[in-house]
């Protein structure tokens, strides 16, 4: 039947009567990389909050791998295989990238057993692979506090992947990054897309162009249009509400 990892149906979220999401319908195929764009206040963050269970639907439903998420807590949903990366990096600055990744791999074991126990060879290989994937092999053993902002972003994406989620939610990963780091993060997400389902929320249009296959445009809590970057950019509705604004005025 359907190969959708995520299916959102007729979803409405009201905050004191204001509909942050309004009868929204959305599906993501397993293995897909989707970029979501939309002007400020469109409902993008609320959309992620709904998927992670932080906010519950007023109406409608969210299905992940066929299961309705309504009755599950945020923690349970995370254990079911949904990982979220927030906008600001949340790495342990005094630990090295390698140690940060070890901790993420062992989230259930806790800090002490991670450092008291010797990582077994298979775990060591996993972490070496992750360091390679995020491009931090050379900096694996310096304090994470010494990494650049972009390197920290990549490390945090690695920490997310270390938890083996099936669906990765990534909120504005290149805000404040240099052009070179933006491209690095883009390449990292493209590499991860080979074996993960990913939703990226992003404002930076250059970046969206670099990574996007399918783009969903949110506006006033609903899907305004979906398609390739070219289709979306040429859609008069989108030009009107979003892309038509001069860059300087876009908040
Ligand atoms: P975006 O991330 O696209 O900028 P948000 O999802 O943060 O948009 O917000 C969508 C709309 O819902 C905004 O108008 C915002 O003010 C409103 N909103 C978001 N969270 C709440 C809340 N907890 N209470 C009331 N209004 C909210
Ligand atoms: Mg937001």
UniProtKB/TrEMBL annotation:
Pfam families: ABC_tran, BCA_ABC_TP_C
Gene3D superfamilies with a match to the protein in the record: P-loop containing nucleotide triphosphate hydrolases (3.40.50.300)
ABC transporter domain segment(s): 6-245
Name assigned to this protein: Urea ABC transporter ATP-binding protein UrtD
Keyword Transport appears in the UniProt entry: yes
Record's GO cellular component terms: plasma membrane
Keyword annotations of the record: ATP-binding, Nucleotide-binding, Transport
GO terms of molecular function: ATP binding; ATP hydrolysis activity
Ranges in coiled-coil conformation: none
PANTHER family: CONSERVED COMPONENT OF ABC TRANSPORTER FOR NATURAL AMINO ACIDS-RELATED, HIGH-AFFINITY BRANCHED-CHAIN AMINO ACID TRANSPORT ATP-BINDING PROTEIN
NCBIfam families per the UniProt record, alphabetical: urea_trans_UrtD (TIGR03411)
């Amino acid at each position: 039947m359907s190969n959708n990892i995520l299916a959102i149906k007729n979803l409405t979220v009201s905050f004191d009567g204001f509909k942050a999401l309004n009868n929204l319908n959305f599906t993501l195929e397993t293995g897909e990389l989707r970029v979501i764009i939309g002007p400020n206040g469109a409902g993008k963050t609320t959309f992620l909050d709904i998927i992670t269970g932080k906010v519950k639907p007023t109406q409608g439903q969210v299905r992940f791998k066929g299961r309705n998420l309504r009755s599950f807590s945020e923690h349970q949903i995370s254990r079911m295989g949904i990982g979220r990366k927030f906008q600001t990096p949340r790495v342990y600055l005094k630990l090295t990238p390698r140690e940060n990744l070890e901790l993420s791999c062992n989230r259930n074991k806790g800090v002490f057993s991670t450092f008291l126990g010797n990582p077994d060879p298979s775990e060591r290989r996993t972490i070496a692979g992750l360091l390679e994937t995020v491009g931090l092999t050379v900096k694996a053993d310096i304090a994470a506090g010494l990494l650049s902002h972009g390197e920290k972003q990549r490390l945090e994406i690695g920490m997310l992947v270390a938890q083996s989620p099936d669906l990765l939610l990534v909120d504005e990963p290149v805000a404040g990054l240099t052009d070179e780091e933006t491209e690095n993060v883009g390449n990292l997400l493209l590499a991860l897309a080979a074996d993960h389902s990913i939703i990226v929320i992003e404002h930076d249009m250059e970046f969206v162009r670099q990574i996007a296959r399918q783009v969903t445009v949110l506006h006033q809590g609903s899907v305004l249009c979906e398609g390739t970057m070219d289709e979306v950019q040429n859609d008069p509705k989108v030009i009107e509400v979003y892309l038509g604004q001069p860059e300087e005025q876009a908040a």
